[in-house]
Amino acid sequence: MQVFRAREGGLIDRTRPVSFTFDGREMGGYHGDTLASALLANGVRLVGRSFKYHRPRGVLSAGPEEPNALVELREGAAREPNTRATTAELFDGLVARSQNRYPSLHLDFLSLTGVLAPVFAAGFYYKTFMWPAAFWERVYEPLIRRAAGLGRASGLPDPGVYEKQTAFADLLVIGGGPAGLAAALAAAACGARVVLADQDSALGGRLLSDRRSIDGQPARAWLVMAEARLRAAGVRILTRTTVTGVYDGGTYAAVERVSDHLAESGGAPRQRLWRIVAPRAVLATGAIERPLVFGGNDTPGVMLAGAVRSYLNRYAVRPGAHAVVFANNDDGAGTIADLADAGVAVAGLVDSRADPPEAVRALAAAHGVPLYAGATVRQATGGALLRRVVLGGRASGTMLDCDLLAVSGGWNPVVHLASHHGGKPVWDDAIAAFVPGATPPGLRAAGAAAGRLRLADALATGDAAGRDAAQTQGRAPHLATSPESAAITPLWQVPDSRGKAFVDFQNDVTAADIALAAREGFTAVEHLKRYTTLGMATDQGKTSNATGLALMAALTGRSIPQTGTTVFRPPYTPVAIGALAGTHRGAHWRPTRRTPAHGWAEQHGAQFVDAGEWLRATHFPQGVETLQQSTDREVRTVRQHAGFCDVSTLGKIDVQGPDAAAFLDFIYANTISSLAPGRVRYALMLREDGFAFDDGTVARLSEAHFLLTTTTANAACVLRHLDLCHLVLKPHLAVSIEPVTDQWAQFALAGPQARTVLAKLAGANSDVGNTALPFMATTQATLCGDVPARLFRISFSGELAYEIAVPASHAATLATALQDAGATPYGLEALNVLRLEKGHPVGAELNGQTTAADLGLGTMLSRKKDFVGRALATRPAMLDPDRPTLVGLRPRTPGATLQAGAHLVPRGAAATAEHDQGHVTSAAYSATLGHWIGLALLNGGSRRTGEVLRAVNPLQNMQEEVEVVPRVFHDPDGAALHV
Amino acid sequence: MSDSLAPAVSITRAPPRSMAAIGAFGDPAALLAALAAEFAVSVPTTPACVRAGTTTLACLAPARYLASGPREADLPTRLAAALAGVAAVTDQSDMWATFVVSGEDVPELLARVVPVELGAVGALALTRAGHLDVRICRVGDLDYEVSVWRSYGPDLLHALAVSKQGLLF
User: Fold this and answer.
1) Per-residue pLDDT tens for A786-823?
2) CA–CA separation, A155 vs A502, rounded Å?
3) How far is the alpha carbon of A236 from chain B, nearest alpha carbon, in Å?
4) Cα distance from A251 to chain B (closest Cα, Å)?
5) What is the ipTM of this complex?
6) Prediction pTM value
7) Residues 6+ apart with CB under 8 A from A401
C-alpha cells in the first residue's frame, strides 16, 4: 500500500503502475518514481546501514548526492552495489536489497560497533589493532573490511553491453535546469550547434520539484515550451546523461544510462560513454543542499528540505506525517508551505537566525506554523525512525514530536567540473558557499552552479552564458518569476548538540572526528580528508565537504577560504568500468590479427596461439598427434626433407631513397651500405642506451631500395624508431620509409629438398640454382605461373632455406603450391626448436637487458661509423666480461627436461638469490639431437663452456644438473646453408 | 536517424584496388609538381583526397600520398616511372582492408567508431577506431571509406557492425 502517496499531483504516470521488491518485500510504485520515492510512498523509511557504525539510515536527498540510501540493484551477474536509490528509476520487476547489514536491515548485529565508537574514532586503524603486528594482515584487516563497507560486487562477468560515441558541438550545456535551458535556448536561437546533457530522466532541474512560476504560468508549462523549442532547433538533448569529467581541448566525458531504467534492455546498450567535444560549455549543474550538524542528524526521517519538496511535488509522496522544518535560510524555511499544502502537519519552523526576514514570519503565520526563531534542533531521537526533536538556542528545552525533519543549511553550487583542470573554487559570503573560480578553458558557470541561486538569476545568467557562447549580443526578454529569497546566515554546527552529529554520512565522520583531527594536527584539508575519510567513497563528499571545511576553520580560528578547498577530480559520479571499456572486452579486448594464410592453415588442421596481436599456427597435428609429437615430426621433416612455415607476421619495412644506405648505416650497428644490390644481410640495431633492440634481415633490392624485416613483437616499435630517427635526427637524408608488413604473405621454405620444391614452383620462369641464387641473395621471380614473388635465400633453421614473399592475396595459392610440391607445413613450435638448435636469439634473449656482446653478436658493432647506441654501448658496465652472456645448456641426465625460467646456481650451493648466476631463457626438446636443449644468460658465460651447474625452478619444485655447451647445437659450421 | 527500424547504413568491403604509397625523398615541391602533372589535379598538401579520373589521390602527411585506383591501373608501376628520383613508390595493393560505409545514418555510426568529424567531401583523417589505426575519407555526402591494414580488417568490420547495432537505441 502506497499509504504516503497523495491522491493526485506529481509527475508520476499513474496509468503505469509498477511492482518491485525491496529485501524481498513486494511493493508498488508508478512509472516516473525513483526507488527512493517509491520506498517512501510505501512507508519504508529505513533503507540502509551506515559504513562504520552500522547506524540505521534513511533517505537524505533526492539526487545523486545521496550518501545513505545505497542499495544493491538487480540480481545475479547484473547485481550492482552502491546504487543510489534516489537516482535509480523504478521499473517493473526491479529487485533491490539493502546492504552492509547482518542478518537483516532491522536487526543488524554489527550495529554493536556503535557502542564501541570510541575505539572507531577518526584514524582508528592507525592507532588500534597494532598488536600483535602479525595479526594485522590475517585477522584485523579482514575483520575490518568485512564489518565496514558498502555493497557486494557480483563477482561475475558484467552481462551489460556498453558503447561509446563522440559528439561535436559549438556548445555543451551541462545541466537542464532553468539556467541550462536558458543557455541552450539562447545559443540555439543563434544557430549554434548545442548538446544539452542532464543527469535526470527529464529536463527541468529544480523546476520539477519546486512550485515556481515563470512568465505568469507554472514553471512546468515553460519547461514544455522550452524543450519543444530546443528540439525544433535541432539541439541534441541527452537525458539520463551525467557529464563526469572535463579533459583537454574542450573534451568532456559523459555517461548516458541508456537502458538502466528498463526492465528488459531489448538489446540496447546498458550505458553509453560519450566523448563530447565542444569549444564552449555552460556549467549549469545547479547546487546541492547542505545538511545541518546536530546530534542524531542521521536518524531516518531527517531529510534535506529541497528533497522533501521533491518528494512532495514531483513524486506526490509525503515523506512523513508530522514534520518540523529546521533551516538557516529563506529557501529552506519556505518548505513549510509545500508541506502544509500537501496535508502534512507542521509542528514548527526552527529558524536558527535570530531575526528571520519578515517574509518567513509571514509564511509561518499564514500556515499556522509555530516559528522558533534563533533556535536550533539540538538532538533528533528515535533510532530507526525519527520520533522527536529537542530544540536548543532560544527554544532550549522545547520538544517537538515528528517523523520528518526537513533540514537546510544552505546550498553548495556544484562546482566539481569547474575544478577538473585544477582551478580552485572561491568563497562567496553572500551564499556562504564556494563558487567556481578559474574554470577550464571555454567553460562558464551559470545559475545556481555560479552561486546565483534564485530562479530569476538562473534564467538571466543562463541566457547570458548561452549568448556569450554563441558570440551574439543582446538579452532575452525578462521573464517574471515568483518572488523568492536565498538569504542565509550560516550555521555550521549546532552548539551544545547531544549525541553523534554527523558531517559525512557515508563515511560516518562526525563533528567530534573533525575536532579530533584538529587536536592531533591534521588541520590541512588533504590531511583532514585522509585522516578522517571525510569526503571519500561513492558520494565524494557532495553533502559534507564544505561543512567539514567550515568546522575545521572554526576549530583553527581561520576563515573557510583560508582553510582551503579539496580538489575535485573526475569522475563526478561513479562510472561503471564496463562503460570505459565499451565494446573492447572479451575476444575484442584487443585486435586479433590473422596472417593472409590463416584460412589455409585452419583448413589444414593448424592449432593457433596468440603471439602479441597475431594468431600464429603452433603446429599441424596429423591424426591424434600431441603437440610434442607433431612438433618432433615437423622438425625432422625440415631437417630431412622440406617444410614451410608462415612467417608473415615478421615486420616488413620498405626504405627507399638516395640516402637510404646512409640512413640504414645509422640505424643498424653493422654496416649496410657495403651490401651489394641483390644481397641480404643479417643486421642488429641498438637502442640509444646501447642495449640490443631488434634484429632481422636487410635486403638490398636495388641501389636505392632496401627491405627490412623486424621481429614480430617489435614491428611497430621499429617503425616508430625509424620515423623518429629520420624526422628528428636525420631530416636532411633523402629517404622514404613505408611499412609493408600486411602487403606480403611470407613463407620460410627449409630443408635439404627446399630447392627442389622451389624449382617446381618457379618452373622455367626463374633460375633458383645455387649460382643464380646463392646463400644470402635475393631476387624477384614469378611462381606458380603468374604470381610475382620475392625470394630471399636466408635461413633461420640452419637448413638450405628460402623465404618467399608474395602479395597477400596470393597466400593460399602459394601455400597450396608448396604443399603440392612436397613440402610439409610446420608451425611456431617447430620453428622455435629449429632456431634453438642453431642458437639464434629471439624475444626471450633480446629482452631489452642484453647487449650485442651478451648475445654473442659483439663483433657486429662497426667501429668505422656512427650508429644509434654506439656511444652508450661502450660504457664499462656494458663491456664487463662477467655480464650474463648467452650460452647453450644440455641436461646431464639423458631424458631429463629443461625449463625456461629456471635459475642457474653452482653445484652444491643453496638455491638462493645470492647464488643466482643466470637463468634459462629458452628450452625445448630437440628431435634432431634426441634430448632437451636450452639457451641461458649466464654470468661470464662465454668463459664457462664445460661447467656443470644446477638449473633450479622453485616454482615447480624442479632441479636438474646441466652442462654449459656452445650455443649452436646443430651444424655449427653452417655447411647445410651453402649447398 | 531515419524513421524505419533498421538503421540506414550499408557496410561493404571495397573491391581490390591497385594502391601505391608515395613518399618524397626530399623536396616536397618537386613531388607536388610531378603529381600535378601526372594526375592533372590540384594536389592537396594537408590530409584530404581528390579524384583524378578513376584514381584517388590521398594526402596522408606532408609529402606523403596514397594513390588508389582500379586493379588494372597498376599504379605502382606507372607511378614508379613517373616519380623516379622524386619519391619512393611502394606497392600496397594487398595491404589494406577498406570498407565503404554509406547511408543516412552514417554520421551517427561513425560517431561510435572514430573520434573525429570529417568536413566536406574529400576530407580525410588518420585516426583511431578503438585500438585500430584507421584512415577515413569522406568520398560522398553520405559515403565514407574506412581503411585499416589488412590483418585488422575483421576487427574493423566488427567495430562497424556493433556500432550499427547501437544505432537502434
Assistant:
1) 999 999 999 999 999 999 999 999 999 999 999 999 99
2) 33
3) 12
4) 11
5) 0.96
6) 0.91
7) A322, A347, A387, A388
